[in-house]
Design a protein that fits this description.
The complex is a heterodimer of chains A (454) and B (337). Chain A has 454 residues and is α/β, with parallel strands linked by helices. In chain A, the strands form four sheets. In chain A, strands 1-14-13-17-15-16 form a six-stranded mixed beta sheet. A four-stranded antiparallel beta sheet of chain A has the order 2-8-7-4, with no helix packed on it. A four-stranded parallel beta sheet of chain A has the order 11-10-9-12, with helices on both faces. In chain A, a hairpin with a 5-residue loop joins strand 7 and strand 8. In chain B, the strands form four sheets. In chain B, strands 1-4 form a two-stranded antiparallel ribbon. In chain B, strands 2-3 form a two-stranded antiparallel sheet. Chain B contains eleven helices and eight strands. Chain B is elongated, with a radius of gyration of 27 Å. The C terminus of chain B is likely disordered. The chains are: A alpha/beta (454), B alpha+beta (337). At the A-B interface, strand 16 and helix 14 of A face helix 5 of B.
Chain lengths: 454, 337
């Protein structure tokens, strides 16, 4: 069984919500749609208060090459366009819409019928992906159409679909692999076509045997019944965090290493999440913009019947989702958006769902407790755990002393912020906290150095 | 046996002498010419090597002073004018007196004024906290309260007030080296003119949000209403991005703005009496009674904004700046709040 070659940790997977079928959340009274739901330039709101919008209508236009369209997830009247705090408490432009019953934009196919025939025209596919605002749903929300257009001097060889879902607790990818496997495979075939590659690998961790079986079955079914599905395979991966990291997954599947500051395409790989594949299917085959996604509501302090996977639309207040789930449990000391390893604590529950939202995770006081920090004894556990082969203890020392040059020499910019070092440190040193800041500083310095040359 | 010892002593002595001569010649030949004044200047420096002057240490500063045509661009914030005079005397040049500066914390976000909206339990560092999110209160511009400035201060002039959760500057110890200014990720701390008799008027808020939002987050936020701007007879106040700023070079300490401010965001410190509504001419040289009595009036007859007068941003030791001299400010009234 394959896995990435260096580092990694083994947190308990705690997939408590795995058995819960995806439920569709009812519409709230008001939605607030953020204009920053992707990496790159924020979208520019093109609606004004008083405008009537339909479900699927464009309300935000991209600004710049790396940016994406934002669509209205509901039908209704725009009440305001203004600043509202996101889940980090930072003001971002949101479009507020008073919700009315759904009225879809023309040209969107809302039926459930599976379309397996893949369009011939590459540009048509890319246009659909772009105009429907598809972004990577693995966490970074990088605009998908940009990723599917590698620079002409680089050739993609393999498409990797990330179904690892290595973060503990999260089960949304697992559920869509069980319930929407056909769509995911069709999406994979579409992306394979766009990239012009012959091979596509769907990587799934061993702790999801049902998903592996289901995906295998779907792939063979589609391969026998339709054209364009050759070369797609399902690969079982060993359970190890952070398997879903882009560079780790490439290492696991292709045994190739992306060099420092390099991109996956340098080694001929393109990695997309299974949820992105589903969004690509919707965008290309159904002309459906990316306004829905799946989110897990989970946590040890939540009773078993409230562990849920929900299909949400963008712009739902998180507090509304919590309410639909029966309220925030009393023992919850911290609510996290994303997994426990890389997710962000939510400081503002009035923030709204975004394209990339993946979970509402309730953690208890005991789970989030920070134990007192003690001295580094150079045990090397962090260096052993680091999947990028860095030396976190050293980076921490350098970061605290502001030694930017040495930090760069020791490749702090390669840190993927997976948190393995912090997880493994027996002295409870806030390694990642220090390294993350140093990484930002070093990358800024590197950009400043290359910028004037342009 | 004895001869061996004698021979050894003789041989080692000769070798020592020979090497001494070699070293002497080498030192003569490769002598680095250095201005002897650098040593002299360095002697008069405080020797804190704090870097507040912008150089790597006191010697680097001394070298820069010797090399510079005049002393206009070089200033030792720790030694202040006294040291600069000595430096000027060594170098035989003129030096202009610089008004002494002091670090000022521009945030009103005490626990009382600025209620917490969430609990931060991450690593206790402002830098880390600022990188993670907007902070544990509704105000995204205010003090984060983890004390990076306190850690940055080499002179022990900063401390966190456990009651307000804000840093406090000890005016006596502050040398205006600017280390805290650099350490603060929210850019709250500013170096301002120490002012005559340590009296200063400043806007203690940097919140750039619109009035209503700012006020919602903090009771004592600057709401950018512009009343102070209109009230200022000297044009020292500008309101930009919803926040007022007082230019300390233009401010004449009349305190008309202090009484105008509806939220109490403008602070006046070390004044013997609270600012009064009709503002009877710039509070010029008030010959008030005893400092203790003055403080009492400040405490008693100061219901509104002026109550902020002796907010603990300033050191309690110097707060009741008596009309006598700054240095002799009586210490007894330490705990006022």
């Amino acid at each position: 069984m394959k896995t990435f070659s260096i580092g990694g940790v083994h947190p308990h997977d705690s997939k408590i919500a795995a058995g819960s079928k995806i439920e569709v959340l009812p519409l709230p009274k008001t939605v607030y749609i953020s204009m920053i739901q992707h990496l790159g330039g924020p979208a520019k709101a093109i609606v004004a208060p008083g405008d009537r919008v339909k479900t699927g209508q464009v309300i935000g236009e991209p600004t710049g090459f790396i940016s994406a369209y934002v669509h209205s997830s509901v039908t209704g009247t725009v009440k305001s366009v203004g600043l509202r705090k996101d889940l980090n408490g930072i003001p971002v432009v949101h479009v507020e819409i008073a919700v009315e019953p759904d009225e879809w934009m023309d040209g969107i196919d809302t039926s459930d019928k599976l379309v397996t025939e893949i369009p011939e025209d590459r540009q048509f596919i890319l246009d659909r992906i772009k105009s429907n605002g598809v972004v990577g749903l693995g966490g970074a929300t990088f605009p998908t159409h940009v990723k599917l257009c590698p620079p002409p001097d680089k050739k993609a060889e393999c498409l990797i679909l990330n179904g690892a879902e290595c973060e503990p607790y999260l089960t949304s990818d697992y559920r869509i692999m069980l319930e929407k496997s056909e769509q995911i495979v069709v999406g994979a075939a579409i992306m394979k076509k766009v990239l012009g590659v012959s091979r596509a690998v769907i990587g799934i961790e061993e702790n999801k045997p049902e998903a592996i079986a289901k995906m295998r079955e779907t792939v063979s079914k589609l391969q026998s019944s339709a054209k364009g599905y050759d070369g797609i395979e399902v690969m079982t991966l060993k359970k190890k965090y952070p398997q879903g990291g882009e560079k780790q997954l490439i290492d696991a599947v292709m045994r190739r290493q992306v060099k420092s500051m390099g991109l996956p395409i340098d080694v001929g790989a393109v990695v997309q999440n299974v949820a992105t594949s589903l969004a690509v299917y919707d965008a290309v085959q159904k002309n459906m913009p990316l306004i829905t996604n799946t989110l897990t509501v989970t946590g040890d302090c939540l009773p078993a019947d409230r562990q849920k996977n929900y299909l949400f639309r963008i712009g739902y207040p998180l507090s509304y989702i919590a309410e639909c789930n029966g309220g925030v449990p009393e023992q919850a000391a911290k609510i996290v958006s994303g997994g426990p390893m890389m997710g962000k604590a939510i400081s503002n529950l009035d923030a709204t769902t975004q394209k990339g939202s993946s979970s509402l995770l309730y953690l208890t006081e005991k789970q989030t407790e920070r134990k007192p920090e003690s001295n580094c004894i150079r045990c090397g556990k962090c260096a052993e755990a680091c999947p990028m082969g860095l030396e976190p203890f050293l980076l921490n020392k350098l970061a605290r002393n502001g030694m930017t040059e040495e930090l760069e020499q020791n490749a702090v910019q390669d840190c993927i912020e997976c948190g393995c070092c912090l997880y493994s440190c027996p002295a409870n040193i806030p390694l990642l906290d220090m390294i993350r800041i140093a990484k930002g500083e070093v990358i800024r310095a590197m950009r400043a150095r290359t910028a004037p040359k342009k | 046996m004895t001869t061996t010892i004698i021979w050894t002593i003789v041989a080692v002595t000769l070798l020592g002498l020979l090497l001494a001569v070699v070293l002497y010649l080498v030192a003569k030949k490769f002598k680095v010419e250095e201005d002897p004044r650098i040593d002299e200047v360095e002697k008069v420096m405080p020797g804190a090597n704090c870097g507040g002057c912008g150089f790597a240490g006191c010697r680097a500063f001394a070298q820069a002073c010797v090399e510079a045509p005049n002393l206009d661009n070089n200033f030792c914030p720790v030694g202040g004018n006294e040291v600069m005079k000595k430096v000027a005397a060594v170098l035989g040049v003129e030096v202009k007196e610089k008004a002494p500066m002091v670090a000022v914390v521009r945030c009103n976000g005490t626990c009382e004024n600025r209620p917490k909206t969430n609990e931060y339990d991450g690593y206790k560092s402002c830098k880390v906290k600022a990188a993670l999110y907007s902070g544990d209160t509704g105000c995204i511009y205010g003090c984060l309260g983890c004390g990076d400035c306190v850690a940055a201060c080499q002179f022990g002039a900063l401390s966190m007030d456990p009651v307000t959760g804000l840093p406090v500057v000890d005016e006596e110890k502050c040398t205006a080296c600017g280390a805290c200014v650099k350490a603060c990720p929210k850019k709250i701390i500013e170096l301002r003119n120490k002012g005559p008799k340590n009296r200063r008027v400043f806007v203690s808020c940097v919140n750039m949000e619109k009035g209503a939002t700012a006020r919602k987050a903090c009771k004592s936020a600057c709401i950018g209403c512009g009343k102070c701007e209109k009230a200022c007879p000297f044009g020292a106040i500008t309101v930009e991005h919803n926040v007022a700023y007082i230019d300390f070079n233009k401010c004449k300490l009349c305190r008309k703005c202090v009484v105008e401010c509806p939220t109490g965001a403008i602070h006046d410190v070390n004044f013997p009496t609270p600012a009064q509504k009709p503002a009877p001419k710039p509070a010029a040289k008030p010959e008030t009674a005893s400092p203790a009595a003055a403080v009492e009036t400040a405490e008693a007859a100061a219901p509104k904004p002026a109550a902020e007068t002796k907010r603990p941003v300033q050191s309690p030791a110097t707060a009741p700046a008596s009309p006598v001299t700054e240095k002799e400010a009586p210490k007894p009234e330490k705990k006022e709040e």
